[in-house]
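Reviewers of the previous submission asked for a worked example of the structure-prediction workflow described in the proposal, so we include one complete record here. The input consisted solely of the amino acid sequence. No template or homolog information was supplied to the procedure at any stage.
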Amino acid sequence: MSISEDEEDQKRSLFIKELVQSTPICFDLVSNENDKIPKRIIQFWDNLEQLPIDVSDCIKSWSQLEILGYERLLFDSKKAGEFIKEKLGSKFKNAYDQCYHPAMQSDYFRLCYIFIEGGCYIDADDVYNGADINHLFKDNRLKVQPLCYDVSSHSMISPSIFTKPGAYSDNWIFYFNNNPLIARSKDPIIEQALTSATLLLEAIEANKIDVLPEIQSTAGPGNLSKSVVDILKKTNKMEQFILVLKNWENIAKSQWPLSYRNDARNWRLSNCQNFKHLK
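From that input alone, the workflow returned the following structure tokens.
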């Protein structure tokens, strides 16, 4: 008997719940110098000529890391496309071109960049609070932030609640955010997420779908969460692949409100719609 999509989603959520609640925060692993995650912060805004001042302030908050030896890179839609074509080729550039919203472009681009170069991708609306992040780059594990959404209240659950062992509700959905996305190049989970996203985007180009796909599940957190589960189910050494960042909010927080959140640039208001026709 085949398993329904809802059942698959529930099983995935439960797997992530167990992973989040049972995995200790451990920074004891150290990789050799050639296999460490590069100290590089990557960000994206589709049109830098129209970069909102409040978003620019968020991006600038990370500049204090430069004196600690971190490289900062800011891409726009054009530069991201050029990077993808040069490093991965036309197949992936064509997939990128199918991303119908800037948020989807950033989701796909971060997978491409991190897979090729490694580093730390940060959303443009995250504000850095000055906390130490050097420990996140000492080993080659993928670092991701867990999230939990309550369907009944249409709200996010605080990490201080959902990360506690045994915390659970039938209304909760556990998943991983793709912000931050911290990994070495050629990370197997990032590779899986990139492969899956590319296949979905190729289906748009081939006109194999009738409606535009949902942004989060195509190249965003939904796709990443599925890829994490798919890879980790094949190994009994999860602690060597991934580190769950249960306290990322101690390092950075997404800034609210911001000017762009009230218009079509906010993916939540443009999901499954042609962004070019909404501007």
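The chain has eleven helices and eleven strands. We consider this example representative of the routine output the project will generate in years two and three.
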